[in-house]
Fold this protein.
Amino acid sequence: MGHLDHAAYGWLTPVLSYAMACFGAALGLRCTDQALAAPTARSRRNWLLTGASAIGTGIWTMHFIAMLGFSVSGTEIRYDIPRTVLSLVVAMAVAGAGAFALGSERARGVSMLIAGLATGLGVAAMHYIGMTAVRLHGSIAYDLPAVALSILIAVATATAALWAALNIRSPLAVGLASLCMGAAITSMHYTGMAAVSVTVTPSPEALAGATATQFIFPLTVGLGSYLFLTSAFIALTPSAAERAATVSAQSLTRAPGAA
């Protein structure tokens, strides 16, 4: 049985992964707020797509930053590139499904629970598809109760995120919701990793796939840069309340008798 270390670089990867989860959640909430107040269907769709990409990228980046700290004694670790990319596609797709569920004014009650269930299962699928990309000398097994708990956390997190996106407006509340969502997403990851056990089978054969520094790290940096650029774009875009205030001020200026 190989010894598993989930934080080979100390607190660096857990803290960074949590920060990325919070960052993606905050961007997603802001984009959803913009979408719900959008004046046209096209504008709403574009904001939802941006929010979905931000949340999906945040979740995936959180997962693989955390995986940078994953090591197993007695074996090297490689990553299968197609499966790693597939996990990113799944993250984007499930985030998009959740975002577009919010685009409907009917997304309340039972429909929100259904959307939360589907999105949570998708997040869990992203995690475990990402785990199938791991290549090492040996075999990986899972503790089923811990896996079930990680899936439950993912579903609860997704449902809470959908509710927050529909009901939270103030910047302080969005910030607090993002911190909570980031903690829940990170908890899902490390609960899923706690379910993992590895039986090492030493072998002189070279492992297929890419190392974390060859593939995961550059891709993570690229996606992280995308999130920062997205945040800059969103920060420069006025909110619905700011647009309304501008229109009101212009109306007062143009009104007869205005100074």
